[in-house]
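Weekly sync notes, structure subgroup
Attendees: PM, AL, DS (notes)

Item 1: joint prediction request from the bench team. They want all two components modeled as one assembly rather than separately. Inputs as received:
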Amino acid sequence: MSLLLLLVAPGVAALATVRVQSRYLRELALVGTGISLLLAIIAAVAAAGGAPLVGTAAWAPGAGLTLKVAADGVSSSLLVLNAGISLVAILATHPERMRRPHLFMAMLLLAQVGAAGVLVAQDMILFFVFWELVLVPFLVIIAVFGEGQREAAALKMLIYTSLGSLTMLVSIATLFVLSGSHSFLIEDLAKSRFTTFMGISTAHLAFLGFAFAFAIKTPLFPFHGWMAQAYTACPTPALMLLAGVVSKLGPYGFYRVAIRLEPGAARDLSGLLMTLSAVGIVYGALMALRQQDAKRTVIYLSLSHMCFILLGVVSLTAAGLAGGAVQMVNHGVLIAAMFFIVGHLEQRLGTRDRGRLRGLSGSTPVLAGVFMLIALATLGLPGLNGFVGEYLIMAGTYAASFPLLLLAAAGVILAAWYTLRLYQGIMNGSPTLGREEVEGTDPARRRAELGSPELRVLLPLAAVAVAVGAYPAPLLALVNNGVGHLSRVLSGGG
Amino acid sequence: MSPADLGLAAQVVVAATIMVLLLADAFVPDGRKALLAPIAGAGVLLALGAAVAAAGSGLSEPDKARVLFHGTLAVDAFAIFFDIVFLALALLVLMLAPAYLERRGVQRGEFYILLVAALAGMMLMVSAASLLTIFIGIELLSIALYILSAFLRQEERSQEAGLKYLLIGGFASGFLLYGMALVYGGTGSTSLPVIGAVLRTGSGDHLIFSLVGIGLVMVGLAFKASAAPFHTWTPDVYEGAPAPVVAFMAVGTKVAAVAVFLRLFVVTFGSPATFSRWSILLGAVAAVSMLLGAVGALRQQDLKRMLAFSAIAQAGYLLLGVVAGNRAGMVGSLYYLAAYGTMTFGAFGVVTLLARSDREASEISGLRGLGYRHPGLGALMALFMLALAGVPPTAGFMGKLFVFVAVVKAGYGGLAMVAVVSSAISLYYYLRVVITVYTPAEKPRRAHPPDRLGTAAVLAAGALSLGLGIFPGILYDLAQRSSLL
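Output from the run, pasted for the record:
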């Protein structure tokens, strides 16, 4: 019941945006999301206590559809992330400064509903419905509120994602027919007896259909073609949600659907997916090094790290799965902060060119401090949250393949390089922008230093980074709760 | 009244409405012909009530269905399902059309008479228990639509549409009739149950006649369903014909044709000896339709032409359930046909509401900024496009899902892949419209206020497109009870 409410609260707020005055828009969204966050925390507590929340209702029994929702440890940790990032993204939105704020806010809330729905759905059609629901708001946001070649970016994202959705739909239909149980529930689809189609096992085909969809969403190298353009065009608050939460639905899909439904095929194809992930880590890192644009550096940083998360998940080891799940939360927090900082600088100083942004730390000590913390956490400094998952993923990869571990390690070293270069380039050195450009003659408008509206966004994220880094045990215990079951499925043969 | 009587009453009421309209037209003065719309509407509403009552009174139980008039007319749950679809469609068109006709200056009584006549044709087609009844139904439907297509008499394009439709439609009728003659020659009967029984015994010598006949009937029906490669008339006719007529025929003709496919091919021609022959052919027709329609729509700048190509692709999806030939395919087809009706009517309905007094509002670029000029209409247009594209949680998605599952179940994995490729292509042109609707216009245009009744009709279609997707159980259960298998 409370899981359904968790979906409904932001949805109702999204509908209500049509009628509300624009100055109350943010409050409305905050209330809806706040309720959702509260319920997500309840779900997490329940899952940690070993009694995950489950809800079932009839949908269309004749057609084999069931409204079943549940939140295990992995789901509920991501639910909290989803609501939390949505909350700060809403705080980062300034309805009074934009055109069509109602549409923007409604889309932000809708995206949140979609992501939460994907995270709790236990019926594959329900999963698919929410999966598609997530896409629509981002298309609208990029096409209407984006910058640069926004329509092209939106269409590209649409085409990539939809191709994945369609292969997923075929996989669902195949499993539905093969399982013969006339139900789309994940647990029933898992009973499929596989045959061969044109000489290939249907288990492998179905797994690939799912994997393709999830790889595009993540995005996994080489399915990332839509990402740079869409992320670049996406406005900051939406990007925080897109990079912070929605990209996690890819690895989550592997965890919840692809591996769960065809563990055998997953084992056979694990090597291929791990190799792609490892190559993606290095590719993303090298691309990040090449960028002059700070936003694009962070975009490729995100690509590299997402491939890292996927590496852990598809290693199919207990450590890798747990590390991937933990890192999803951590990366979500950190990447949202990173994109916020870059967006903040661009908005205040009118550029995100690393060559023009130099030596800001003298004028912006608070920003420099927070940025430093986030950057260090991102590159995996022990004691901050990025390290926890990274270590587990490395351990899991080591158990599966040593050469790939070396590649991944190379990626980590490169990560230190480009992350620090990004930080140092912007903060240290002799300033290229004049002092009045950075501090501004009109202090209210142009100062690049963080004010209290920005701190409201960044401090919670930074606090999570420090807290999880210092005391990761609760989060680990929470995700292990969910990962344990999948590990048993994997070891139990299938 | 027994359920079958109620079902028959629906048809009788529609036929009587034509007579009443013919008489009324003689007494209503020029300039006040819009009065015929409520008369027609009342008749259709009465018939709809009878049909719904028939469906609700347990017609789905096998012993309640009846074959009447010496085996020519079947009143069963299958027929009633489609009667409801057609009657609801006609009702919505009657709400939509009067203001449009007024604006375009062609408010004439014939429109309503022909519309109800076409409706009677559709209803006859889906209840046909004999080849001849099918033919009579198709001709009644087609002849009315030839005239309606050319109803904007002052416009060359509309005349061109009517003429093209007449010529090619006549050609298709020829194929159909010749095919029926051969089937009659091969089996010795025009009654569908008898033909089915003869084909099941597989009496060898005459099978070849029947097979050629089945092939020709398929060609004739594929013309009507605008399936490739018999689709060439579709873009021109849709482009030229008045928008509310297109809303009516894009749904009605196609749904009726596919319904006949279901009854005639899946059931009557469904014997193992014949099924294996035609299902491959029809599978090819479906595949070609899906691909040609999707690719053809990509480059269209005219909204009505784009929707025409999309309708060709949709014909391919609709035929998937026929090709599957199993119960899942039948039920999936019924669901998808009804869903297709709501979203296609809706899309053409929006085009109708946007039509200006001097021309149709059919360039896609003309929709730019619609989402801000008319937030309601813009949102509806976006919804119909998403539904046609099969994006959840719309009825279009559920329909596609059910026929996909049926096709996979029947073992046509390749056909499912073609459907996937076509759907992927189709997303591009459907969503291009959505993005256009929400792209701010360069120079804001003055918008004329859309009429209330027409908007209500389109809104109803929108509510159905969304509601049947979120709660698919209602329609799915009805489809299950109305299945012929």
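Discussion: DSSP finds 21 helices and four strands in chain A.
Action: AL to compare against the crosslinking data before next sync.
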